[in-house]
Amino acid sequence: MSFQASYAEFASPRPGDTATSSRHLAPDCAGLDFFALDRGLRDLLGVYLPAQAHQHLLPHFQRMGQLSGGRLNALAAVADKYAPVLHARTRWGEDHDWIEYHPAYQEMEHIAFADFQFHAMGHRAGVLGCDAPLPPAAKYAFQYLFVQSEFGQMCPISVTDTSIHLIRKFGSPALQQKLLPRMLSPDLGSLWKGTQFMTEKAGGSDVGAIETIAREEGGQWRLYGEKWFCSHADADVVLLLARPEARLAAPVALRCSRVPRRLDDGSRNAYRIVRLK
């Protein structure tokens, strides 16, 4: 598709135009290069990025801008028509919930996690040929270009990125060694994506009011409760807030636990995805 009027023509009023005129519609963005069009972004990258990094990343910004108005735009339009589907059982009748995604969504995942590696670019070297992690200005510039066509995919990207940050900052050396190689992988077949389950009916933005209980049983922590509005519900690594049972009276005494989707023996962990919103 291509838009029927130039931006200049769209912005210029015509005799007889009214506030409800059918001409007051945004033109189609298909085929546009979002990086080439955005002079402000290009100028700011020259200010906030080191010269060597800016020169190295420029072709990648150009490619992302072309993808956003091209292939990514087309994939997003298709994926929007075919929402993910939650299945309660496997094809063999086993009680094992899983989410089915349209191939268009899966191709967008490949662009984000395998090609550009948004989830890893701020944490390790090797992404886009860089010998060090990308600076925040570069990472968020890539994301800014990406979301102009596909915003929904940015949630799994961001919660994986932030889960990696939390594990690097607060996780034990053993936990980091176990999780980070898989969470930083560009291989979708071995990648472990992350997320955070915080919100509950009793405590939306006020996480101090959450009711999920963390109970220590036999040297392990078990969690009891219901989370509400869980972004990226089928992530492999969940960081989840709960209230230790011994501190139920304390308003902000919370514990952050790492909840794997699959246990070490490969079996499904004992929590259930109720529905997709």
UniProtKB/TrEMBL annotation:
Annotated region described as Disordered, given as residue ranges: 1-23
Full protein name: Acyl-CoA dehydrogenase
Residue stretches making up the Adaptive response protein AidB N-terminal domain: 27-186
Annotated InterPro entries: Acyl-CoA_dehydrogenase-like (IPR052904), Acyl-CoA_Oxase/DH_mid-dom (IPR006091), AcylCoA_DH/oxidase_NM_dom_sf (IPR009100), AidB_N (IPR041504)
Residues covered by the Acyl-CoA oxidase/dehydrogenase middle domain: 197-246
Cited SUPFAM superfamilies: Acyl-CoA dehydrogenase NM domain-like
GO terms assigned for molecular function: acyl-CoA dehydrogenase activity
